[in-house]
Amino acid sequence: MQRPVLYHIPVCPFSQRLEILLELKGMRDAVDFQVVDITIPRDPALLAKTRGTTALPVLELEDGRILKESLVLLRYFDERYPEKTIARTDPYERAVERLFITREGAFGNNGYRMVMNRDRAKTDALRDALLADYRWLNDMLMQHNPEGTYLFDRIGLAECAYTSLMMRFWFLDYFEGFELPETPDYARVARWRAACLAHPATQQVTPEEIVKLYYDYALGAGNGALLPGRARSSFVFDPDWRGRPMPPKDKYDRVASDAELGLV
Ligand code: GAZ
After folding, report:
1. What average pLDDT does this structure show over 207-215?
2. Is the pTM of this model over 0.85?
3. Of 4, 75, 93, 200, whose Cβ has the fewest other Cβ atoms within 10 Å?
4. Which atom of ligand 1 is nearest to the CA of 68?
């Protein structure tokens, strides 16, 4: 094996983090990205390598050693290819960067809870929880770089961790009309979010792709599982998402058919 192999799901936010980091480093080709189809049973050889866990991404080094967890892999790649370092180098700045990243899990979960919700009575509370996370990010950005765009003077590790999650929440724009309020307590995070979404190194996915592929996920069928009445998952690679129609917006009331989603 000439290069480390990253087993991944192309549309997964945890793998996109790594693509963004490698893109920023100019090292995208240092890693062999191998796609795993989550709509079919997992290859036993890969399961043996991961010691039974199914979550991706998983990195296999040239000598067969295995590493997991996207945030761990982010720092591994940054340290292994040190010609251009993305993480901060000053100890205080590294601490701030780590502090900022500590909330990515809660942020991801709050966003996904809202993506997956199909109970209208819960929508407002879920929106409030996600907005509280955005206010925390706003306050951190105001504390550490009030006049700037990113957490520091350029896009960095913090932005790698959050951008792919914010892109999955395009789903909320489409289905819930979710927008950051245009008030001062969101102004700084709105500027940061817009820059993260527009940066040339973060363009691996589009809103159209996210909305089409994540449709089933949002209706409760995670990881390639099938919804009632359906024979195909919205996560299938064939037919390609580009040729499929946009899904219907009434995700609370019913499950769209294979035909309606352009899956047959
Ligand atoms: N902590 C791991 C990491 O690497 O950071 C998480 C990896 C992970 O969850 N990967 C998912 C996976 O491989 C794909 S991406 N699943 C296949 C399997 O068989 O386990 C995100 C969420 C969430 C649920 C799903 C996802 C998602 O919260 O996009 O929150 C951000 C999965 C309920």
Report:
1. 96
2. yes
3. 200
4. 4
Q: How many Å lie between the centroid of ligand 1 and the Cα of residue 13?
A: 8
Mean pLDDT of 16-39: 95
Closest ligand 1 atom to Cα of 71: 5
Q: What is the mean pLDDT of residues 109-118?
A: 96
Residue 143 alpha carbon to ligand 1 centre in Å? 31
Give residue 100 CA to ligand 1 midpoint distance, Å.
Answer: 20
Please give the structure tokens belonging to residue 7. Answer: 């087993």
> How far is C-alpha 39 from the geometric centre of its chain's CA atoms?
19
Using CA atoms, how far residue 178 sits from 48, 124, 128, 181, 227, in Å, is 41, 11, 11, 9, 25
- Neighbour tally for 125: CB within 10 Å: 11
Task: Check: CB of residue 137 under 8 Å from CB of residue 151.
Answer: no
* Domains of the chain listed by start with CATH number: 5-80 (3.40.30.10), 91-202 (1.20.1050.10), 217-264 (3.40.30.10)
The per-residue pLDDT for 1 is 66
Please tell me the distance between residue 204's alpha carbon and the centre of ligand 1 in angstroms.
Answer: 18
